Input
Amino acid sequence: MKGKVRLAVIDYESCKPKKCSYECINVCPVNRTGRAVAIEADRAVRGKPVIYEDACIGCGLCVKACPFKAISIVNLPSELEEQAVHRYGVNAFKLYRLPIPRDGKVVGLIGKNGTGKTTAVRILLGELRPNLGDPGRQPEWDEIIRRFRGSELQVYFQKLANGELRTAHKIQYVDLVPRRVKGTVGKLLERADERGIARELAEELGLKTVWDRDIRKLSGGELQKLLIAAVLSKDADVYVFDEPSSYLDVRERVRVARLINREVKPGKFFLVIEHDLAVLDYLSETVHILYGEPGVYGIVSQPYGVRNGINHFLEGYLPAENIRLRKEPIKFRKGVEAEATGKEGGLGRKKLLEWTDLKVRRGSFELEAEAGEIWSGEVIGIVGPNGIGKTTFLLTLVGRLEPEDGMVLQLGEYTISYKPQYVSPELFPKGMTVGALIREVNPEAAVPGSWLYIELMKKLRLDRLWDRDPRSLSGGEMQKLAVALALSREADIYFLDEPSAYLDVEERLTVARIIRRLTETREAASFVVEHDLLILDFISDKVVPILGQPGIRGHAYKPSSLKTGMNIFLKELGITFRRDPQTGRPRINKEGSYLDRMQKARGEYYFG
Ligand code: ADP
Ligand code: ADP
Ligand code: SF4
Ligand code: SF4
Output
């Protein structure tokens, strides 16, 4: 194996030796004469096997034999070894290369979950001292700085090692914060505020109304905005935002992007991890793409200009490193579409729902909806701010809320499959594994080799969690399971409230494709609440914009084409989009730019 090095990674969360009787050790051919895989009493992973990469011949028999899919064996070019930055432990994830922070610029990171984005930023923040790929020792800063000699990272690490860089980090899982920190929004912001701008930021982010609220009572979006305000009010040199747009609606995403951009100035470094490509595109100057095998290894690409970088990522090929990320490019629609989708009244299509003008009241909140109808095979994107009545609208359509005025004509018996916005452990029954839960909802989805299994379980990497207790999963894993369960269920109407939360770009597109296909083949209709406009564009036959005053009143427009619906929505927000000519993806125009002014003058907020 010339020019290659072997990487053996064991997922110790999944490895269950008591259940498999050490199948990996038994099948290993090297073990007959020597030792490639064995139990080491003195290791931290006591009772679990260790693979010696030097002795292992890479036959892959253990990979096949392990009933819990806990082992991965890959061969990598040996040149890469010189660029190893960190390995968490023996047989653990390994990161190669690092993103380059740029003075006075925003650097964006994209890539699948589990390829090391958070690891990379934690190293750049000084939260994690890199071991240069050898978990057995801890190199001094001098050695680390020498490793990056001649690159911009050398100067950066020198400053970091000398304590000259103050850092601020917006962590990924905002839901974890109330468990660790106590207090009200105001108290927390005042404590974080080193620049005397927290009140102003709270005002701009709409947090003033919750200023005295205990943080345990905040919604996901409010927590997200609180943490963003807290990080921005720190007087730091390096700012990292790990997924700043989760739980935020479109207007809030753009507002946050503008606030971050406003702080960008010489002497400050900004790094952003983001799966909403429209937001990442708007924020960043350069991007790095992380690739590799999730949970096994990750490689950081060269920096690309943001437009080319995102386009290369969507096309699935990185020219500078000659790396193919996937077989098929991801394409968006181009050109203007007609008002009709061809699904209304089309051959074999049936009308599933019809409603008159509606008025629905929930406490002091009131929703008005324009009359409309839904045909089988249609995917309807619902877009609007948080608290505007998206859930209320849907619950009324499916008959769970009674309208005060108007009526919904149910044109048959329906089964409904629903994925709520927030997913918590209580959503899953006790005492069932991930696999058992999927099998109960739809046995076909649990059969390896079936379309649903390949598309959902494999692509969302739920196959690796098959024997786990759903309640023990991470927030992101629980989201994926909830999406997979909702899509596995046979239903006439699907309602998916933010299926993208915590999913990476490829997973979002996988879910979007499955929704389209299931809606077609099951002759169902799907409603998808979506704040990621690339996904909304990709998935929707039609759009229902809901506008008004969050928490007070909402107005749901009738379902219309993507172009018409998005135009109504974006006009209200005062944001214009253009399409990238190469990939067809929607891009946010800079406020006041030539295109922004021209499109606003023409009333074309969403270029079709
Ligand atoms: P991303 O941010 O791209 O999702 P991460 O940097 O969070 O990726 O994680 C990359 C891999 O490293 C994951 O497979 C994760 O399980 C593993 N990992 C993260 N932290 C640790 C740790 N403290 N010990 C061992 N493995 C870890
Ligand atoms: P969205 O899905 O757009 O976030 P919802 O339809 O969930 O919005 O809620 C719209 C408004 O109705 C919110 O202001 C919310 O506070 C209010 N609301 C939701 N459920 C109830 C309820 N059970 N009783 C009173 N008010 C409610
Ligand atoms: Fe043994 Fe083959 Fe597994 Fe290596 S890949 S540990 S040689 S079974
Ligand atoms: Fe068993 Fe797989 Fe763990 Fe080996 S890695 S002990 S085969 S569960």
